[in-house]
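Can't paste images in this forum, so I'm doing it all in text. The chain is below; anyone willing to post the predicted structure tokens underneath?
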Amino acid sequence: FEDWKVINAQALVTGSVSKEADGRVRAQYRLWDTFAGQQMSGEQFFANDANTRRVAHIIADAIYERLTGEKGYFDTRVVFIDESGAKNARKKRLAIMDQDGANIRYLSDGRSIVLTPRFSPNRQEITYMSYESGQPKVYLLQIETGQRELVGDFPGMTFAPRFSPDGQKVIMSLLRDDGNSNIFAMDLRSRSTTRLTNSTAIDTSPSYSPDGSKVVFTSDRGGRAQIYVMGAAVGG
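Text version of the structure:
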């Protein structure tokens, strides 16, 4: 490692990729501490040709975490709204892709406006808002199967959905005919609903704290839009 020490390289990655007799690809790596001359980590993976990109991302995550102490983001995906078409006929589609822009996949056909997609904590579901029924409603989508379901058939418009940190609830805004927007949470197992705000103001854009004990939201109850915090169980 002497040559690497000269240029002050603190870590070195070595690796190899080979083809197994059964057709699988074998990828292995080792991460070295150049100054100590010791291996810091190392693994090997087997995959078919279709999954070699993901193996590379998994290896990058392992190296990143070992060097920084933080979880890597290379083996992650981005959910977003793809907008295309002529200026007077724009089409919005729910889409997903790898974090580096590869493997784009469309999850809706563009016949209805879709907005504000959010991943569940396990990254297997998406909650989003759609105008499919003619007015905004919140939906759940299973990414791999494509199965969709309406999150509560409430009277009025539902929008701005977010998952709770444990993935067991979806919090959202509900706008009724009187023009008031309040915040509700639905338990995805029991399908029971809890009303968290009850005001004549516009309460919207709710989001849970990382531990799920509080909810932050915006409201104009003070005369202009401000950020408020309330308990997730009792509301405010």
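The chain is about 10% helix and 45% strand. The radius of gyration is 23 Å.
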